[in-house]
Amino acid sequence: MQRRDFIQLSGLGIGGLLTANIPVMGSNVSSDYLSEMTSRHSGMDNAAKKRLADIALNAAKSKGATYTDVRIGRYLQQYLFTREKQVQNIVNAESYGMGIRVIANGTWGFAATSNVTPDAIAKCAETAVAIAKANAKLQSEPVQLAPQKGVGEVTWKTPIKKNAFEVPVQQKIDLLMKVNNAALDNGAAFVTSNLFFINEQKYFASTDGSYIDQDIHRIWPTFTISAVDRAAGKFKTRDALSSPMGMGYEYLDGLASEKIAAPNDLVGYRNSYDMLADATLGAKQVKEKLKAKTVQPGKYDLVLDPNHLGLTIHESVGHPTELDRVLGYEANYAGTSFATLDKWKSKSFNYGSKLVNIVADKTQPNTLGTVGYDDEGVPCKQWDLIKDGILVNYQAIRDQAAILGEKESNGCCYADNWDSVQFQRMPNVSLKAGTEKRSVFDMIKGVDKGIYIIGRGSYSIDQQRYNFQFGGQLFYEIKNGEIVGMLDDVAYQSNTQEFWNSCAQLCDQDDYRTFGSFFDGKGQPSQVSAVSHGSATTRFNGVNVINTGRKI
Amino acid sequence: MAILTKDEAKKILDKVLSYSKADEMSASLSGGRLGNIRYARNAVSTSGESDNLSLSVMAVFGKRSGTATINEFDDASLEKTVRRAEEIARLAPENPEYMPMLGPQTYLAANPYAESTAKMTPDFRAQATFDSLDPCRKKNLTAAGYMEDSTRFTAIANTKGLSAYNRETSVEFSVTVRTADGLGSGYATRDVTDVSKLSTKEATEIAMQKAQASASARALEPGKYTVILEPAALLANVDASLMAAMMNSFDARSADEGRSFLSKKGGGTRLGEKLFDERVTIYSDPTNPEVPASPFGGGGGGGGQGRFNGGSDGRPQEKVTWIEKGVVKNLSYSRYWADKKGVKAIPAPANFIMEGGTQSLADMIKSTEKGILVTRFWYIRPVDPQTLLYTGLTRDGTFYIENGQIKFPVKNFRFNESPVIMLNNLEALGKPVRMGGNLIPPMKIRDFTFTSLSDAV
Description:
The complex is a heterodimer. Chain A is an alpha+beta fold. Chain A is about 20% helix and about 35% strand. Chain A folds into two domains: about 5-220, PmbA/TldD superfamily (PmbA/TldD fold, 2-Layer Sandwich); about 295-545, no CATH class. Chain A contains ten helices and 30 strands. In chain A, strands 13, 14, 21, 22, 23, 24, 25, 26, 27 and 30 form a ten-stranded mixed β-sheet that branches. In chain A, a hairpin with a 3-residue loop joins strand 8 (about 190-205) and strand 9 (about 210-230). In chain A, helix 2 (about 45-60) runs parallel beside helix 3 and helix 4 packs parallel to helix 5. Chain A is globular. Chain B is globular, with a radius of gyration of 24 Å. The model of chain B is unreliable at about 300-305 (pLDDT under 50). Chain B is built from eleven helices and 21 strands. In chain B, helix 4 packs parallel to helix 5 (about 200-215). Chains A and B meet through strand 1, strand 3, strand 5, strand 6 and helix 3 of A and strand 1, strand 2, strand 3, helix 2 and helix 4 of B.
């Protein structure tokens, strides 16, 4: 339908996407318009929004709603797509409207409208109540909403330094052309590069007495470089080692102070990314990949870079600890979870080794999941999911808190647009760094037979999150404490609990940085969300590595 | 209802084009209704319906193009949108791969529209859901399901005289049934153009049987097995799949550029080579009555279709044979790449049809000495684009077959396999069924590679 479209990329997909489809919401606008709308927000008339929100709250109440929340949302998106010497596409899009969620007769109802005028708002509220009452006939238990004290009239903004929507499009095209040229000059056969910018302007109001205005920014620069050996009939790719961030255009400053040195000229990027340097290095590495030695399958000690480990955390800890999956709400699509309530209640389920401390956090600076308040008006916080290796908590929202015997929500409710209903989405889920001083150089020195893996590659995990298989972008063989060369055809297969219990060593906070997933999909109809996963380089002992090379 | 007739749509499009001051202009009007209902834990969790009607205008000056969209249709709004598209086009960078718009085209008479689906109401959706929930509740099983219906139209026109109109309907239904103890899980999915051909009860009963029969699965050693893959294991509505992955890789440009499984060693493509078992024949045809599809499509200048890629370029969808008796017969082209290569610009297909045999699934099981029956695969992701190697897992009903009979349920496996290798290790093809708008037969494959076990149910 027209509610959202997908940019379909022909040929190879870009790095880090579930498929080669990139969602776009709303209507085409000009870049000047986006720039105007993103700047205007700071001076937006919140009194006017409050008046519109109150119309919805009152209308729903008069029709019989016992709880109502309203989201007035303006979602701005700018995406740039290039290949080699040319711009393929520039998307400038805006989606604006209001979503109204109610509880009536103990049941949720939701309706949304793009017509944000008093009459249409009242009608929309009425529809939401009617849907709630209709569905109430099929329900057996009423919704139990954890209480949330109203926070009054408040605002929150992503603390950006440079608003990406105010940076001229030509400057962005110039950057991508430089990146492409750097790749081509260093031997790449093909290169695609992209910039994604998102600004969510959300006004939330609820019958709890909250009026919350938020201005949220996200950025993702990425590329895919290809090398081809026509004589051998082989090709390889290397994706950018950037991370999507909850930052402004300043992420692209490439500050030296945010670079973390690693073996073989590798660079880890903390909160600032040097796209040109990464493309130059990437082109050299992709050529090396064409000649890399194929891996001998077997057990290896893995040294996993944060830009790789983030996805493993996402899939094997982030998703299984979503309470809606644990309870069965996602059974027909993404699946359920092995991390069942009985394991949590036992207070002794060894999810991982004692070194494994995993936190959920919606307050960490520069990350994708950080906001002031979630999409049901709950102030954001940090909490433990796994402490000293033991499963201690889940990700829950207001209508799930009672199931855990909790009195308050964890604040991780999110909707990807004003016209989608909010539901439980993953907060940032991160592995704490080690407390002993240790660099990645130190860590590799202690490994006799291992593989050092960098970057996001192929990934797959079962519907209860037991068995997984991950690839990567770059693989280096470690022998007797030293890197001896590049490997190819590497993937590791493990079981979540076994894997996290093989966690043997952590680098320290100086090595810590975040990985991110920009278009994480969940729900039917599917909604996207963006989430970060922090870690330092981490060692896992005796993991099963397979060889993925085949002949056809 | 936002379904405009051909004449109503043409009137608006003609007016839009009459305002054009650009070198070339195309306009696309589309709209419809989307309805859905979702349930889990034997109760409805969400349900909704939305209407939409939207106009997209693409203006072109030389090799610069710009697109604007709007959902108001008075004369002033239409003209304003044309001017905005023109402004955006003037400021856009040149696209060296831009191809001039097509003139009038001839289209096949396809009919992917059914009145029964267009008439669906919230009550109808609730009843369909009840038909699925009720038998599960009665048997102490837990159902989670989703049904989505769509009724939509697209009309396109340009200043070169091209004009096309299509309306279509579809309904997708899926249900996962689990036993109360969580040890058994079964799945079924259906998709239809005409909702009168959908029985949520019939599909749910299959999922119920599989849930009950799959409880207390036994572990088999991973390795190479003969497998019978049901159609939902080969194609999926909701996830990547082995057959879609392969058919999506029939792009000529990637092959010519040396980065596809269809690239030839030393340069060029493998067009004309026999890459599969000789029983493999796959074609596309928008007029097939079982899987009717839009008779036009084709990407714009950028990469694909849709408003943000400049809209459909209006190329006709014809009957095209992609693989005939194991031989690669055609590849798809962007208009730019076809022009550069001096060949016909065949668009990527809107559906595909794989020829099969006459055997039912039961017949295929009966003729199997030892093997594994797979209901579906899940979390399928590319491992190596060079060989189209994919990984993923079995899910919701995996069974061991011996001497022509299902013996016992088995624990789920992870596989690492390429559809290219799979279609060379073909033992038998069953009767094709509709899946995700395509026709695909169940397949019996030898030496399918399972690499590890999963505890997931």
